[in-house]
Amino acid sequence: FFFFKDTATTEIYTEQIVGSVRCVQETGINAEYMGIIIYYKDQKYHMDGNIRDQARDLGQEFLNFVNEAVTPFHAVDTCRNHLKEAGFQELLESEHWELEKGGKYFFTKNNTTLLAFRIGKNFDPAQTGFKFIAGHTDSPHLKLAPISKLKTLGFEQSVVQTYGGGLWHTWFDRELTLAGRVIYKEDNGQFRQKLFNFKRPLLRIPNLAIHFQTPDQRTGGFNPNQETQMKPIFSHELWTGDDKKDAKQVGVDNVKMGERLAEGLLNALAKECGLKVEQLIDFDISVVDTQPAQFYGLDNDFIASPRLDNLFTTFFAIKALISEEAGAEESQFINIVSLFDHEEIGSTSAQGANSSFLQETFKRIYFLLSERSTHTEEGFHRASCRSLLISADMAHGVHPNYSEYHQNQHRPSLNGGVVIKTNANQRYTTDGISAALLRIIGEKGGVPVQDFIVKNAAPCGSTVGPMMSSWTSMKTVDVGAPMLSMHSIRETCGVLDTYYYYTFFKSFFKYYETVDQNLLDH
Questions:
Q1: Phi, psi of 224 (to 5 degrees)
Q2: For 292-306, how does the pLDDT look when each residue is reduced to its tens digit (9 = 90+)?
Q3: Residue 461 burial by CB count (10 A; 0-12/13-18/19+): exposed, middle or buried?
Q4: Angle at CA of residue 384, ends 381 and 389, nearest 5°
Q5: Do the beta carbons of residue 254 and residue 278 sit within 8 Å?
Q6: Is the pTM of this model over 0.85?
Q7: What separation in angstroms does the CA of 73 have from each of 111, 158, 179, 182, 304?
Q8: By three-state DSSP, how is residue 440 classified?
Q9: Which of 35, 162, 401, 428 could form a disulfide with 423 if both were Cys (CB 3.0 to 4.6 A apart)?
Q10: Which residues have a Cβ under 8 Å from the Cβ of 401 and sit 6 or more positions away?
Q11: CA 145 to CA 261: how far, in whole Å?
């Protein structure tokens, strides 16, 4: 139902719109648009007239973020800047922490994992718990091999490794570039690291012309050989005149690096970083798309972006932690956002979710805040039992061309709200209790909640949720924002879901302590 006010009589009119969330302007009166009541799957939600404007603004903020966050290093660095601007204090794992009630802190690990937290102003070790959102900073992509230098039939190419489970065919015939970090040596002998992003197109993986393809290749689907057919090209010797040169002859002082990267690329890398070639020691370099994320659709209904999985969570979780809702005066809990690296490859690393890193950090925070009290191991265990861990990753929205791949009663819609993900075999951690808590929070925040399961005959992906619930013994729920084309170089989500996702995270931090948690005691 759309609400309108007659500007002459101030009388309120309503108009029912079925199957659409679009304001009808031909109302027959001189009307001022007031707002919307949405009935979605028998649930009632009120949409103020400016929600779409808020969603558009939030969408633009996300576009700005994801266009800068081209690698996990850049994602963490951008989050670091946002947190510092909001008054968060950066900590170092290797140093002693001085924590205070009401304090705002964060630290990083390998510059690809970040954990930020806010301590309740009324923190009490006997009554506290953790409100925790977890996501990840990595996405499937191509990485330069340690020895990437390769010349084939006059073409300068790079040897790459596939990272994660990408839809690799989407990487062909696109203008690509390089970004990441270099480790270098300063003139004083100290070692440093530096981020870079070329931004301009440098590489391309050309397709094979259809005229050379067999009938099976044409009709059987494109399935490139990841070892031999995914080496990007970036130069040609007939243009550069380098067919007779090698690293020593062109004056590359760092011969070891000259043996690993092509001479032209090595010089370009040093120049981009403002360094001398001989200063370069090593690198972590990713191949990334040059096309920026953007709105699309008749009314800019959608976002097309690389790395939606899972920088959509990364951005809105950090933004929610910074918000006023996460810093309530009466809070006794600790609000935490942790963004892990290596989720796409199993999370088993020092900075991954499947490590002791999280449990050690939770204990470190609790014990430092409780050191003047009698609360120790038992107090920490009680705090864990009061906690709720949200594993926030993206969710599979129903695809209009492939709807048969979704279970009929579980078809999340783009622009339809947050998705609770459930799997009977614990590929997702959701159960009735954690789902109920999330539905209550969604209702309090005015956020529609959808449900997703995979069909019984289909494989199910997983998240950091199962491993983190195992490490922490905390009640856990898996949620996400609906999207299409997961693990493509270009993915799609709905613009309205920027508002729903952000509002949902804020509502979690604001309302969780007010929800009756007796269910967690059994």
A1: -70, 150
A2: 999 999 999 999 999
A3: middle
A4: 160
A5: yes
A6: yes
A7: 6, 21, 9, 11, 22
A8: helix
A9: 428
A10: none
A11: 9
